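Teaching assistant here, posting this on the class forum so everyone can see the example we discussed in section. The complex has two components, and the goal was to see what a joint structure prediction looks like when all of them are supplied at once.
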Amino acid sequence: MTKKISIVGAGLVGSLLAIYLRKRGYEVTLYERRPDMRKVKIPAGRSINLALSDRGWKGLQGVGVDNAIREIGIAMTHRTMHSVDGKITTQPYGKDGQGIYAVSRGILNCTLLDIAEQSGAKVFFNERCTNINLANNEMSFENSETHSHTKATSDLIFGADGAFAASRLQMQLSTDKFNYSQSYLEHGYKELMFVAKPDGSHQLDKNSLHIWPRGGYMLIALPNLDGTFTVTMFFPLKGNPSFESLKPKLDVNKFFNEIFPDAVPLLHDLEEDFFMNPTGSLVTVKCTPWSFNNKIVLIGDAAHAIVPFYGQGMNCGFEDCTVLNDLLNKHKDNWEQVIPEYERMRKPAADAIGELAVANFIEMRDLVGKPEFFIAQKIEGWFYEKHPDKWIPLYTMVTFTNIPYNEAQEKGKMQDAIMNEIMQMSDIENKWNDIAVENKILTLLKQQSPNKNGL
Amino acid sequence: MTKKISIVGAGLVGSLLAIYLRKRGYEVTLYERRPDMRKVKIPAGRSINLALSDRGWKGLQGVGVDNAIREIGIAMTHRTMHSVDGKITTQPYGKDGQGIYAVSRGILNCTLLDIAEQSGAKVFFNERCTNINLANNEMSFENSETHSHTKATSDLIFGADGAFAASRLQMQLSTDKFNYSQSYLEHGYKELMFVAKPDGSHQLDKNSLHIWPRGGYMLIALPNLDGTFTVTMFFPLKGNPSFESLKPKLDVNKFFNEIFPDAVPLLHDLEEDFFMNPTGSLVTVKCTPWSFNNKIVLIGDAAHAIVPFYGQGMNCGFEDCTVLNDLLNKHKDNWEQVIPEYERMRKPAADAIGELAVANFIEMRDLVGKPEFFIAQKIEGWFYEKHPDKWIPLYTMVTFTNIPYNEAQEKGKMQDAIMNEIMQMSDIENKWNDIAVENKILTLLKQQSPNKNGL
């Protein structure tokens, strides 16, 4: 019988999972490598705010914390693109005011930790997992303050310790036939900041996610409650221009004035932030299996770290929790059935969102700046409005539905192929909402469906 | 100045590399995790004999040990296929008696170790590398007999410690942006054996590599000097049939009698070997970068472990040594230039042979049993004979030339596309050597070359 469950990692997913498992009556202990973030300040330049969307909300809703979180979020209903010449374009994210929510990672995590503790989970901080003996589920920890070593065992261990998970490393080192890949983009990121107006309000529309797409790179900005924006620069690590090439301060100022002119007056202290904040790297992690002997299970980034360009990292991890909880209901807490099914369902979904996230980087930094993209989006939005049962834009499926990511990816490919044909139609930029376009899409959908859906 | 070089791993590649580096005057120390294989017996069921081909010979030739090795090898000039109904088909590997050489991994490794020591390299056995501090090139070892811990530093460290390299793990754990993947086939392998005739001769043609292709799986057999054959069964790990499903002894005998009937009378002790020998796994490892700060460099399987189906694992590792030595000549031992160029040249080559090796598994177990495959091979052989300047079969490029693997792979794809068109020609099975076929290939080659070769 599984009674005692340990979770390595008290980040967003570990904390939410603890709440779910406490609700089901398990003894839950969380071990976190870092100090208690409710008591210490998070280092600057590492905050990256998050965009909560439907899958994330569903995860929070399942334990009744969605309303508390909605109060600390800012709805972003639009994408706002800033071109070099100062031209501004906006696109709605969904229809009828659908939006994604900018939330602070820190506040969200602290809230979940509070609720986890209130619900009876024990949380130990500063405990770095140094080993997991997979033969007897014994975890070893080293306390980063006292340097004392402790051990603990559990009926079941969840590895929720993120992209560089110690739990996953043990699976790599101690199990046979563990498939694993970690793959880095050639871009890194740097956190910058837009200051608030003197009256504490935002200098740009706060209900937008702002993008400065520039082909090979981009800036994005997400609103914070205090009137500031967290700005993230996604930029090549090497080459020209790159984080490596922009060394002298003069170069950085010159570059920003040329490439992001309308952002410059809003920035906090470009030189300080650019040179003092760390350069982050962007990794995709895939592995399989996610579990060993039904006694240790990877979840969230530990199982499937993805790059941030679809805003789905946390949402996917929260959906892991929802799916797991649904399966525990279905199988009446029989973990021997739950774990294999969880893995069968979630592995293809996680692979899909990992790929979609990399692909969306190219779309965000590149395609959104291209006129064809806008036409295709207009056609898609218009057709979706008329035939919501026949076509849902990929972004909408990923962000505003719970359709498994892998199904969304498949449908997205099929829709892409159709849209490519539509864009070949003559004078499409003017005739984009012509009856001929509608009919052609309907015909192509009919042709596609027998193959693509295996009917 | 680089003077002291350490090599972690005294396997085939580590030992050969040591000889090359000693010839150039470096102080060379080898650290090997296992005991001295010249003094202890290698465990049964783990020998897998090797097939030396041109790239391997070139590596051995560069240090003058090719003739010594040729004496302990057996030339295999043909592939012999055994079908279920006992029918035997042979195909030459190359033309004019070109062959690959079956050699014993153990004897080869012992010979290279002897020569490395004679040339002045120091070799320490039973020394397991537990850590490499990349900041100061300090290696830590634990002796598996005395359990004593020692440390050593070096100007340059080579990680030649194989598919599960400790050196590579340090790169994964301690460097930023290390791209890494380990990916297992769903098949494993098991070593079996054919006994010799009472007079010590071989029961099957010894100048052949024997294959029992059966679609989803296969047996292969390579000759040994003592009249035996080392037999390897490549078989699914799970499913039906699989190593998992063939549990009772009766099942194994029944299965072999049905599926490999002509092999059964030749086998040593099927039940003992099947149940006592370990089931091996088949992994492909890719990573990049292969080096850190030009102070530690991965080589051989540590950089690029591949599956055995092209017989190129060792050959590729030996070619690493040849390429490195050529670059040391070119750049007059300036390692700062040599290491980046080595990596730029070898990484695409290693990726290519890794992919070709996986693809050849499907060919070996499947296509060789299909009649179209034989026709295509006949056409290819005939055309190659007439136009050796225009077409070289992929197998020949990989096995009997030093064309970089990635170029061979590219050319192979182009040739495959042409052969697919040729195979559509009417009555091709009878008209395979018609002038029309020759002309069509020539025409298609002319069409292909501007695109594919970037002319």
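For the discussion questions: The two ends of chain A are 42 Å apart (CA to CA). The interface with chain B takes residues 169, 172-173, 176-184, 237, 281, 283 of chain A (CB under 8 Å). Think about how each of these relates to the inputs above.
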